[in-house]
Amino acid sequence: MSTPMEERMDLIERIPDEPARPEEFILQELMTIAVAREVRNDDIVFAGTGLPMLGIMTAHLLNAPHALLIYESGVCDGKTMHIPMSVCDQRAAYMSSALGGLVDTFGYYLQQGFVTLGFLSGAAIDRYGGINVTAIGENYYAPVHRLPGAGGNPDVGTMARRTVYIIPQERRRFLDRNDYTTTPGWWCRDFDTGAWRPKREIWKGTPFAECGPAGVVTNMGVYRFDDDGIIYLDTHHPGVTLERIREQCGFDLNCARLAGETPHPTYRELFVLREFVDPELIFLPETRPYPPAIQALIDRP
Amino acid sequence: MRPMRGSAKKAEILTLEAAVKKYMHDGIVCAFSGFTAFNRNPVAFAWEAVRQGIRNLHVLDKHAGLCTWFLNTVGAIRIYETDWVGWGEMAGKLDLSVEKLYTSGKLILEEYSHGAMTMRFLAGAVGAPFIPYYAPLGSDLYNPAYDALGRAGLRNGSHPRIPSRKFIEMTDPFAGEGKVVLLPAANPELCILHVEKVGEKGTARWRGISTLDKEMAFASDRVVVIAEEIVPEARLREHPESNPIPYFVVDAIVEAPWGAFPSAVPYRYDYDAPFMRAMDRASRNEADLKDWMEEWVFGPRDWRALIDKLGEERLKGLRADPKTGYSTAVMRGKRPAPRMQAPLSVRRSGY
Lengths: 301, 351
Hints:
Chain A is α/β, with parallel strands linked by helices.
């Protein structure tokens, strides 16, 4: 016996994999799908709470069904039925391959070198992909704004082969240098000398010298990093101009390699995300109506 | 250096009030089980500690949760070594009491990464004085200027639980290349665990995510186990491979049903998201917070009275489904949870 939800699964292939129009999806959906497309089928993914979680769960139903997902609380390859609100929600652990604890995830999996893709959020980023989730303001001990702090962000961000961040873009969050670098990007401080040096040099001789930020998805565009470890704009989201993007960036942004508009989510991707990944509307604030032709396919299979 | 410790002893069974009175005291270095505000937080114990007016705590943690939320609300923590001071992802993330205490200089916050705190407890658990770990080299977490305990003058050897250094960065002395960070072991004086079942001698078991509880228990001088249920030892010994905690490290056990509320005890009950959202709302205003604490902390006669106050209907909605370990009756988002028999990704592509 299948539940109504399970019967709807059979519809996925019948929903066209064609780009939706901008008025048919919300920003969170665009960002989640952009993140989902970063996952490869042979990736071992270490994901944080929120949109990173939605992204990997969408990828599991579409482009990367066999990507292995790790949550820091100890979950290895959970087969989730209901979206977890946190990485230590028991929902995350359902039918997992192994269920351990933090020593398993940070030691046996991450420091052992198994993780190929980190999926994280950040509060502020510098041009080299360094992340601040700790404190805003010049004085660490008397911050203008205190944030929750590191969590596993700096562990995953430095030891996963590549890391993709989701960050809200504002001028005060896209900076030449962070006030505080929680997770170093491609350039970081050498505290022996105080100088900034490439991560590859600081981490030379460790297994993780080549690990670091690979992409950033914001509310305005998708960014990648060049060979010098400097961020550049890859695609801009629909309706977002380069002027607005530059306005909301605190340094001279490289837009010379712009590849065009961020590909829109397809109707099939939206269908999967809305109906199967977050049907309880926990992380998605709302959903827009499907166009009539798509709704007809859903109503009358 | 830690002394040799322990004997083949049987844990004592205490009431919640007696366990707090006997094992907690002002200034103690302690650690709480679970993970953020979602999973097996020993809430009843921290709640009772707040009621008994315990102060000046030094908490070693791998993040914040409900216990630290309650304790910070009354400013009971003086030193906090952790990696994250949020308390529940759905409730606004930052523990606002931490921010208030921290920015006014009443709380010393020493920060590490989650992996680093994990390694510190692992070292503590296996009796090692320190442990090497790579991450996160180049982070301000290892900026010598950001050593909060050093800045407070507390790394001078006067406090036996505060290491003389926050960390030591060095070149791998065996391979001769590559930097690595040496981290001091974390060794609390007291660990409080919330588990599903404990045998009457002290053998303890939980189901679901393990977090860092076994490491924290072994790293600590004393362990108090709060359990949903005390059961005959024999029942747990039929499947000893499922028991992470052998009795000999446990000093005291307390039976406190719903003692982790509003966090979850997998296979018993789910977390209560609306309750935590109400806590977070109250914490945004001093008068609201005072009222909330009066109603939910200082008001009830005991923990049992607090649970009774929640009402049978609410508790029924939180009871876990025996197959999945959680409840699908709770309204967590804007729509109810869909009914499902198998994970959709498995139905679609197998394991």
